[in-house]
């Protein structure tokens, strides 16, 4: 593990693991850390050396010198470049692969806009960024949603009540309810959700530009969706996926909670 100092942002902690030699930079999902992908022991860790970054408000990464006003205004999209620029300073500029799960996919897709010529492969699981999630968009960008989001953060009872209502209306399923509830049961956790989603709210990839870059440089793409995922399912992502020439797309019999030993087994058994 190590730390990267990102000018103007703070200190990002990363986990280093895997027995392979090919560098794979990885961005985890909400509520996890850069070690999330260590369950992919058979399918990934033998071939790659993973550098898994902790998001800000996660793990040991520390946003430094930012006021609440700045956090709520959002991190400029151009700052995502700092992850690669600072990593290259430590490990040397070289060809890499990228991997992400859920909201972490936005980081990968934004990096593809500027560094496609250096990227060999992209592996995305239950990815945000292809179509987005309307609930997040409402909370992150709509004036009423942003006010509601802040109120939920400060209240002990609003968030559980909203989650129960969403579950009863089948907007979220049992697994998403459990994941979400475990992230809002303390004020600190609610604040971390609030600050995280506000900080990354402008990290929205230009999928036309991303697709053109992937196609131009013949980047290998493996995209995995959960058949029962209500957060980032395959169907709304397909218009963007279809812009890619040769993406390998899989829909597995799982929900949003995708990075598991079961997925590792699935990937190992893919046809060569």
What does this structure look like?
With 272 residues, the chain is an alpha/beta fold. It has two domains: 2-132 and 204-268, Alpha/Beta hydrolase fold, catalytic domain (Rossmann fold), CATH 3.40.50.1820; 135-197, no CATH class. The protein has eleven helices and nine strands. Strands 1, 2, 3, 4, 5, 6, 7, 8 and 9 form a nine-stranded mixed β-sheet that branches. It is globular and about 45 Å long. It starts with a strand and ends with a helix. The relative contact order is 0.15. The model has no long low-confidence stretch (mean pLDDT 87).
In round numbers, the mean pLDDT is: 87
Estimate the global geometry from the Cα principal axes. globular
Number of helices: 11
Which regions have little confidence, pLDDT < 50, spanning 5+ residues?
none
**Taking Cα atoms only, what radius of gyration do you get, to the nearest Å?**
18 Å
Give the terminus-to-terminus CA distance: 32 Å
CATH topology of the largest domain: Rossmann fold
CATH superfamily of the largest domain: Alpha/Beta hydrolase fold, catalytic domain
Order of helices and strands: EEEEEHHEHEHHHHHHEHEH
| Integer tally of domains | 2
Kindly state the percentage of residues in helix: 25-40%
Give the percentage of residues in beta strands.
15-25%
Number of strands: 9
Structural class: alpha/beta
């Amino acid at each position: 593990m190590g730390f990267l100092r990102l000018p103007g942002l703070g200190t990002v902690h990363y986990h280093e693991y895997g027995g392979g030699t090919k560098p794979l930079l990885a961005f985890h999902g909400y509520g996890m850390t850069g070690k999330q992908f260590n369950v992919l022991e058979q399918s990934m860790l033998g071939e790659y050396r993973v550098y898994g970054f902790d998001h800000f408000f996660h793990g040991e990464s520390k946003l430094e010198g930012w006021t609440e006003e700045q956090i709520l205004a959002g991190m400029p999209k151009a700052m995502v470049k700092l992850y690669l620029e600072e990593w290259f300073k430590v490990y040397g500029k070289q060809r890499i692969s990228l991997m992400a799960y859920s909201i972490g996919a936005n980081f990968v897709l934004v990096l593809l806009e500027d560094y496609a010529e250096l990227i060999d492969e992209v592996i995305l699981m239950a990815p945000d960024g292809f179509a987005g999630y309307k609930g997040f968009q409402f909370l992150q960008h709509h004036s009423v949603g942003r006010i509601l989001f802040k109120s939920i953060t400060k209240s002990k009872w609003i968030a559980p009540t909203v989650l129960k209502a969403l579950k009863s209306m089948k907007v979220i399923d049992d697994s998403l309810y459990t994941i979400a509830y475990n992230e809002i049961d303390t004020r600190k956790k609610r604040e971390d959700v609030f600050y995280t989603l506000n900080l990354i709210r402008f990290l929205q990839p230009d999928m036309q530009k991303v697709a053109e870059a992937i196609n131009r440089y013949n980047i290998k793409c493996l995209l995995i969706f959960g058949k029962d995922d209500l957060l980032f399912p395959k169907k709304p992502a397909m218009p963007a996926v279809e812009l890619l020439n040769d993406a390998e797309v899989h829909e597995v019999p799982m929900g949003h909670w995708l990075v598991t030993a079961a997925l590792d087994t699935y990937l190992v058994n893919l046809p060569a």
